[in-house]
Write a structure and sequence with these properties.
Helix content: 25-40%
Number of strands: 15
CATH architecture of the largest domain: 3-Layer(aba) Sandwich
CATH superfamily of the largest domain: Glycogen Phosphorylase B
Structural class: alpha/beta
Radius of gyration: 24 Å
Number of domains: 2
Strand content: 15-25%
Strand order of the largest sheet: 3-4-5-2-1-6-7-8-9
Number of helices: 16
Distance between the termini: 32 Å
Amino acid sequence: MRLSKKNKALKILFVTPEASPFVKVGGLGEVMHSLPKALREIGHDARMMIPKYSSIDSAKFPMTMVEESLFVPRGEAAGASEDHMTCNVKKFLDPDNGNAVTYLLENEEYYEQRGSVYGYDVDPTRWALLSRGALEFIRVNNEWRPDVIVASDWQGGFIPNYIKTVYKNDPVLSKIATVFSIHNLYFQGMFDHRFTSEMDYDDGQSAIPPIGDPRMSKMNLMRRGIRYADVINTVSPSYAREITTPEYGELLDNLLQERRSHLFGILNGINYDAYNPETDSYINFKYNAKNLKERSKNKEALRQKFNLPQGDNKFILGMVGRLSEQKGFDILMEAIEPMLNNFEFEMVVVGQGDSKYMSFFTELEKNHPNIKTHLSFDAILARVIFAGADAILIPSKFEPCGLTQMEAMRYGCVPIVRKTGGLADSVEDYNPTEQTGTGFVFEKFDKFALFGTMIRALETYKYPKFWEGIQKRAMAANFSWANSAKEYAEIFKKAIDFNLHPNK
């Protein structure tokens, strides 16, 4: 696709600890595959840089050397060779994705010998090396230079910091705009930020310690990314508003308030090719919004999979994902017993997480034959639930974006969600008078609001025509990456403008 002069093609580099198909731990890995791809499809040159972990198969992803023995300074001095680390940069061209370019930063000590993405006590050093390594590569590489660098979450917080301080006078790097993308504000790159002593408090303005210095573990990389980036982006408009308040701001709300003119929210998309009930190889019966009767066969297949009674057509409620406080399990634990004692429905749960929630569901299943669990994450079982369950329950305390509700809606699985973050932006509450809405939404985070909304869904299910209308509207909702990519291109332009005119 050719862009007009007004909408000129941008050169964008995503620097990220994970990206599908190379390595994927969570949702970030999927976003870092889908978003650059969508940007390329509308005419922009979007590339990635990730660490070259030992787990990345060089036979599957053949690479060429583009920068050997790259000097990466440990300390403040840009380009200093006295105290440095040595890395290589390799390049992979994806023949299945229009020869999309991915750069891989190679370092024996921090990536080859530590093959997992997360979970090391030296993680702050690993991400500082990725940040500084990416910038040094851009500085010395004449082949290609980005207009914008996108740094994701606390792992990328040093990138805007380095550019605005260490490299502020660099003729190459000072001209590059930065976008800091917040996927979850709760994780800030240090020990619990809510219990930081005055001695360990990081205001985000002091000099960055040398790479490898123990003080790195006390840096609040999230704060630094927010403070120095030209644009701050979150993964939904509602979450962008929420994090400027004390309730959701994780002690950074004042800083976010200060920078609110540079703060934006864009809802993540989902891969419509991968999540498609007409073609999904993981479900037994293919269907679309025009033949929902075929979908009912998947409900029976779901019953069989989880050893539920066949043919009783009871309402099936699904839950998929991480079992954590964030996901609202505390209020569910209070509401579920009264629901089970007063209403007829079945429930299937797939996921893993905190031990107290795992134990709760184990006991719940023992005492209630209509509750079935699979307490480990299984991506295939998730699809089976999307295609067979009547509704998906997501009562989150907070939810920056959330993909589960969008994926479920694609399959006609009606979402029951709390009105927060991306859930608020993607699910419209059912209105029986107007016959509008794509799911059931409650606002207050308590057991009574959850209880009442679950009852609303159960009662509505008794009217097949109305329920089918909700399903069809949910399936018609458009959460494709194509829409999101256009919005991202606009904030990239804003970042360039802010970088050129910092006092604007």
